Write a sequence for this structure.
């Protein structure tokens, strides 16, 4: 098995100030609104400690009975400006990836330009890295949509 290294950047415009957008990363209930992309999976374990040195971890069981894991450690947090965390993901007992991610929030009038940069060491199937990157973009699309609905008062 080889390791595929890739750095990718996803930018989104968020319909809220950086202070408000930051809450969707730092508050468990708000983060859950945009990260629970598989509502049919069973959550087996969950931890959310949003502080420098804190851990975010989740373990699910898929419909097919496989376990999916996510484990992150927060390395740097500047409220309303920046989050840096290292994380790994696994599936069916195998590590798929190890990454360093940076989320930057920039004020643009009353809105936010979010820049997500991930440096990934991909350990999974060679052809599936692009699916993983596309999934990250889709998740950040959901974040933008949820913030838009939040600002509009739709929950």
């Amino acid at each position: 098995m080889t390791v595929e290294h890739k750095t990718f950047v996803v930018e989104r415009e968020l319909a809220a100030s950086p202070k408000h957008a930051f809450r969707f990363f730092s508050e468990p209930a708000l983060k859950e609104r945009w990260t629970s992309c598989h509502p049919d999976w069973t959550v087996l374990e969950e931890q959310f400690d949003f502080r420098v040195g804190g851990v975010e971890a989740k373990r699910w069981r898929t419909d097919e009975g496989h376990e999916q894991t996510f484990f992150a450690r927060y390395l740097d947090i500047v409220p309303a400006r920046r989050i840096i965390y290292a994380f790994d993901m696994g599936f069916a007992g195998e590590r798929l990836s190890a990454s360093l991610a940076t989320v930057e929030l920039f004020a643009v009038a009353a809105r936010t330009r979010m820049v997500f940069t991930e440096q990934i060491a991909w350990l999974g199937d060679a052809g599936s890295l692009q699916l993983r990157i596309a999934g990250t973009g889709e998740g950040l699309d959901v974040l933008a949509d949820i913030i838009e609905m939040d600002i509009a008062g739709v929950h």
Summary: The radius of gyration is 16 Å.
